[in-house]
Every structure is written in C-alpha cells, then in structure tokens.
Design goal:
The structure is a homotrimer. The first copy, chain A, is α/β, with parallel strands linked by helices. Chain A has 11 helices and 9 strands. Chain A has one domain (4-267): UDP-N-acetylmuramoyl-L-alanine:D-glutamate ligase (3-Layer(aba) Sandwich), CATH 3.40.1190.
Chain lengths: 268, 268, 268
C-alpha cells in the first residue's frame, strides 16, 4: 500500500483514459447527480434496473453499483440478479445500504444482496453499516447516529464477518478490510446538505474499483478525491446550492498534482 | 395569529435545530430538487414509497408529504397506506395534487387520499385545488388557468368541504382554512420556469407543519420563506438555470432577521 | 427549406408564445433536467407514464416524446399506448432510443415503438440509430461508437426503411428524412459530460415539432438552438457543473437575433 495518494492519482488517470462503464442500480433521488459525478470523473455511467436487462448490462460493466434508496421488492430482485452476474464475471460490486437499519425492507435487502452476491465494498454511514452485522442497531431515517470511532471499534470484525471492505463515511471516513485500516480526512461540512453526496461517493468507489484491484485502495482513493473536490467547491460556494456545480467542476478539473498534494489518506 | 412573520422565523429556527424527518412520497421529476430544498432549510428528507415500507417510515416522520405527479396505481396505494399511518399518529399530512383536474387518474387519486386519510394541508395551483371540490373544472396539463381571486371566492367553502387548510399558489398565494384567510406576496416570476418549485413549496410546508401546530401559520410561513428565497435568488440569477443554486443558497443563508423583514404575509 | 435559421427563430418565438404542452415518457435520470430545458425554451413539459393515464395526457399534447432509458416492460406498454393515441391525433412523436443496440430489451422496445406507432423523428447517437435497421450493430453501453460520416452513408436509406426523420447527433449532427439531408455544427465538447444532454435535445425536438410541420426543420432547428446554447454556456462555465445552469440560462435568454446569427445549419 505504498503511497495511496500517488496510487489514487494513477487510478484517476486510468478512469479518465479508459472511461470504464459503471452499471448503477440506484435510487430515484440521486440518479442524475450520480451520473454527473461519474461523468465529471471521466467514467461512463449507465442506469438500468429491468430484471430482463440487468444481466446483459452488468456483463459490459467495469463495476456494478447497487444502492437501496427508494427501494421496492422488484428492484431487490434485479439487484440480486445483476450482482450474481457480476460475481460470476469477477466484476467488482459496490453496495450502498441507504437507510439500512431504518426499515426492515432496507435492512433485509442489504443483507440479502450481501448473502447472495459477492459484494466487494460497502459504503455507508456508521448506522447503516453497523445494522448489517449480527448485532442490531436502530437508525432514525437515513442519517448516521454513531461516530466513526464507535464504527472503527467494530468495523474490522464486521468486515471479516461480511467478507467485504467497509467504507464508513462521516466527518472522517474509515475504510477497513478486516486486516488493514485507513482513514480519509478530506471533505467539507456542506456535503451533507446536498442530497446524494453519499450515494455519489459510492458510485465513485465503483469507478475506482473498475481500475484498481485492491478494494481498500479503491475506496480510500475515491473518498479522498471526492472529499478534495468538496473542499475546492466550498471555496467558491455561497451555500449548498452553488456548492453542487462547483463540486462537479472540481471533480472534472482536479489534476494529478492536486490530488497527490491534497489527498489526506491516513494509513493506520 | 399575532405576527405571522415572527412566528415563521421561530419555526425556521426550530426546523434548523430539530431537523425534523420529512417523509416524502413524491414524483420522479422533483425528488432530487425537493430533497435539496428540505436540506437547505435544515430538515431531514427521506423518500420511500414501497408499500411494505411506508408505514414504518411514516412512523418516524415529523410530517408526511404526498405528491401525485408521475403517478401509478401502486403509488396511490402506498400513499393511502402511509397516510393512514400518519393520521393514526396525528402526524400532519401535506398533499400536492399535481395535475388534478387534468386526468382522471390524478383527480381520483387526490380525492381518494383526501377521503381515506386525514390531510392537513393541500398545496396546489388554483386549477388543481378547484378540481378537488364537488364542482368540476378542467385543466390543461399541470398549469393553473384560474386567478387567485377566483380561487379565493370559493376557497373558503372548499376548505370546509375538504376539511383541510388550502394553500392556493400563484403570483399571490392564498391560504385559507375556511375560517381565516391569509395571502402571501413573496415570490418571483422566474420560479415557474424551474420544475418542482411548486412541489418543493409543498415539501417546505411539510417541514413547517412538523414544528408548527397551526396549519395556516405553517403553510403561510413556508410559502413566505420560499418566496423570499426566490426574491433573493433572482438578484443573482441570469436566468432559470443560475436561479436554482441561488435559490438553494438563499434557503440556507436566510436569517431570522431577513425573514422577519422580508415576509409579506397579509392577514385578511 | 429556404433559410432554416430564420425559420428556427420563428419556431422558437412560437414556442415561447404558445407554450405547447410536451408529454414526456422518459427515463428517471433525466426527467428533472429535461423539464427544466423545456421550461427554459418556453414549452410546458409534463411527465406521465401510467398506462391508465397516458392516452388522456397525450390527447392534450402538442407532441409526445418517448425515451427508453431506464426502461421496464410496463413502460414500453405505456409508450406504445401513448404513441397510438398520438398517432391517431396526428400529434408528432419523437423517439429517443437510449441504449438501443446495447441490450435486447432496449433494441426490441425501440423497434416495437417504431412498428406500432407513427414515430415522426428519431434522435440518437449513431450506434443507437444504426441498431434500429435491419443490419445489426453492437454498442458498448449508451455511447456512440460510429462516426457521423459512417452514419450518413446509411442514414438516408435507414430513414426510408423506418419511415421517420433521423437526427443522428455527435460532434456534428446529421438530420435526414431519406430525401433531404442537413448537418448542424453547433454544440460544445462539454455537453457529453452532462447526463441528459442527448435526452434534452430530443425533448427540444419535441417542442419544435409541436409548432413546425416539417420534421427536418424541427429537428435541425432544435439541435442548432440547443447547440448554440451550449456554446454560450461554455463561455461562462468552469467545467460540466457550472455548464448546466449556464446552459439553461442560455436557452432562456437567447434572442431571435442570436439564433439567426449563431445557427450553423448546413443544407446539403
């Protein structure tokens, strides 16, 4: 894991050059923003959720991003089907368990996807992630109610239990695969005031996972890049409204040098 | 109802402090914008529409917002289910009858929701609102074709018939509960050029209703706040595109003093 | 076809004055952006997809726009139903075959819509359009993999085979009805970095088709107007994020004179 900042910069270059197709089955609220975030990063997003289409689409993809916001049962079935196809092709899967812990539908859907497919990386806030383990936590809506340190205490064990790399995001992000642990300090306090910033971070992890074999490096790099873009956007923003176009601009204009200098990935 | 401007300012403070969870079952076009409007105001939006999830989600919510744009039958079923749960918990329900009067599906859905749940406030343009009563009006698409004075003439009677507070919006907004009548003069002519401004106003009424027991004060306050934000946004906008981020910024940055000074709520 | 630039300017004036209702059955990713593009141009967008509503809504519309992104079978059924109604009323239909050629669901859906309804204009990239003909092409995701000249070589024949005017977009757009051919050179390289620019171009063609009887003139004019707005937006944008509000602003503020001067419609 020598120098994750430089590796992240190389991965961003690869995304911009190879434009990997990222197959998203995601929620209605964030589809447009997520697609624009992926495009600004250089990736090629596609959204497709029909049960009779997802296997075909997943087979073209560099990674598959599953997000359980605005969920219904037929979407779960499509996610599982796409996930099985991706698993069979060793295509990385990134899961965003939006609202897991808040309702049974979402908690069960996330657990089913984890059980029936090979999820590579799970990105969520601490409440969502912690609800996926054997012990039970309850969540108010889709907001985090646990701190990153509380998450860190059980994160490693949970990563092993789930067999996935976990990216637990908050003011400081924690990424763990059960063996290694990394923290990302990039980001800005305006980001939670924009809907879909978490979901878009997940999609960016998908883009990095399409070009980077180490899930820990992919997740940490995507979060550092996204957080750095947020920092740059905040310099120009007068509130969460003007923050959005500035964030997309920053994702598009950040250079390899910016990234190497600005990444704050802390290896444990 | 002494000094609605000060009361509105106090309500905004409460929203920012308590971050009430607003459960939205709304249309696909406006989900993202609505969520960003609610976040900028300080509320916590959640979108959830699955029939096997809405009761659980509604039980956490400070208010329930139902919006019938991009409707299908199964969404109506979910709205009724969520609405019954909210009613049983005395959680306020705000209905946006998008396109009522334009198609039978929408007119009937709005009427069914009103009949089967306890709708606290209905926000729509005059054509939509007037289509909900016993007399029939026909509408072209989702745009208003009646003036606010025409609406005022029958608004009070209709509010009594429907058992809800009505917020009939247009260049001047009319709010009536059948006993009292208030007009809101805030707003800007660019707002109808942005999709979802009406729907977002409805969602903001939901946020205010989560902290304010008087539906008339909640609706009038939300519309004045949203209209004032529109006025501030227009000062910076060069068209309806740049108006959007400026509007979100204004919702986020408006102070209590701005609101008390800028509110134009006219009590009859 | 004397002076398409002046005719386009007249058509834009008509859209702004008459505000034709454009009925869109389109994909989740682009609904909001498409609606804002149509509003900025002066049209009245409505999104409605329920099978028990689309005939009624289509009967009010100046044109019907069908877009097969984020497709499922029940949406295809609604599109066909709406399309048959529009055809019976001689209301123009514009089809956007998003991702045709990439999956069987999408290719078959596009072909079914073309076969069972009277599609006036089809707008897509070269890969999508070429996949609709008898010969088969394969596509990676939803991106074009053929150049406009390759498309031009078969475009005329394909337009005759399909009985529709084709608008094959790319760095240079090709519009052909099988007899006549026009190229549009307006546009900007940032446009493909924004999701929904293609879909919004299709919707604008719908707006022009609602006021212009010649499909070739409608398609070419809409694409020139949209491309010109893109050029103006790029002057102010610092990336694809700030490009979006600037594009909407430009659609709203472009004058008849701007359009006559700026249109680059090349008649063969």
């Amino acid at each position: 894991m020598s120098n994750l900042a430089e590796r992240t910069a190389q991965n961003l270059l690869q995304i911009r050059e190879n434009k990997p197709l990222i197959h998203n089955i995601t929620n209605f609220v964030v589809m447009s923003f997520t697609a624009n975030v992926l495009l600004a990063a250089g990736a090629s997003p596609v959204m497709a959720h029909a049960e009779n289409e997802v296997e075909e689409m997943a087979s073209y993809a560099g990674s598959l991003v599953l997000n359980i916001g605005t969920l219904t049962d037929n979407w779960v079935a499509s996610m599982v089907k796409a996930g099985k196809k991706a698993t069979s092709l060793q295509t990385p899967i990134v899961l965003d368990p939006v609202g897991a812990g808040a309702t049974n539908l979402r908690t069960n859907a996330a657990k089913q996807i984890i059980k029936e497919t090979g999820v590579t990386i799970i990105r969520g806030n601490s409440s969502e992630i912690l609800s996926l383990g054997s012990s039970d936590f309850s969540t108010k809506g889709v907001d985090a109610t646990h701190g990153v340190d509380e998450a860190a205490a059980t994160g490693g064990r949970l990563a092993k239990e789930l067999g996935s790399t976990l990216a637990i995001t908050g003011p400081v992000d924690l990424i763990t695969d059960g063996e290694r642990e990394v923290r990302v300090e990039n980001g800005h306090s305006l980001m939670p005031y924009v809907t879909g910033t978490g979901c878009s971070a997940t999609a960016l992890i998908g883009a990095f996972a399409a070009v980077e074999k180490d899930p820990l490096a992919a997740a940490a790099g995507a979060l550092a890049y996204f957080g750095l873009a947020g920092e740059k956007a905040a310099e120009k923003a007068e509130g969460p409204g003007s923050f959005v176009p500035a964030l997309i601009d920053a994702l598009y204009t950040i250079t390899v040098d910016d990234l190497i200098r600005g990444c704050r990935i802390i290896e444990a």
